[in-house]
Amino acid sequence: MSNLDVLATAESWSAQGRPIALATVVETWGSAPRPAGSYLVIDADGNFEGSVSGGCVEGAVVAEAADVIADGKPRMLEFGVADETAWRVGLSCGGRIKVYVEKVV
Fold first, then answer.
1. N or C: which end of the chain has fewer CB within 10 A?
2. Strand-strand pairing, 96-104 and 48-50
3. Where are the domains of the chain?
4. Residue 38, exposed/middle/buried by CB under 10 A (0-12, 13-18, 19+)?
5. Alpha carbon distance 60, 79 (integer Å)
6. Is residue 92 classed exposed, middle or buried when 0-12, 13-18 and 19+ CB atoms within 10 A define those classes?
7. What is the reported pTM?
8. Taxonomically, which superkingdom (predicted)?
9. pLDDT tens digit string along 26-48?
10. DSSP string, 61-77
């Protein structure tokens, strides 16, 4: 799914009145599978479209997006081998990724 498709989904869900958050890859290093600028849109029910890591950290990002939608406060998430969450979210092959998650109004 292209970034344009993800943004079209975000626009559609927003027009339907669904509370949503947008996650954007802002920095990568090493073997991160998605480049900076990749998007993931998440609704309040945990539905999502797009990808920020090819499946490595999507679950953690979707869970964090629920809090962003609820409190409206954006978050910068960091995942990587040096991070204690690396093994839990599947970046054990190496690399680092930073993902910015913000509520869309």
1. C
2. unpaired
3. 3-104
4. buried
5. 10
6. exposed
7. 0.86
8. Bacteria
9. 998 877 778 899 999 999 999 99
10. HHHHHHHHHHH---EEE
Q: How many Cα neighbours within 13 Å face the side chain of 76?
A: 3
Helical ranges in the chain per DSSP H: 3-15, 58-71, 86-89
Q: Is the dihedral of CA 87, 31, 4, 98 positive or negative?
A: positive
Q: Nearest CA to 99 among 24, 3, 18, 11?
A: 24
Report pLDDT digits (tens) over 9-21: 999 999 999 999 9
- Relative to beta strand 75-80, strand 20-29 is unpaired
The 3-state DSSP class for residue 59 equals: helix
Helix (H, G, I), strand (E, B) or coil at 32: coil
What's the length of the chain?
A: 105
Find how far residue 64's CA is from the centre of its chain. Answer: 9
Residue carrying the six token digits 């996650």: 23
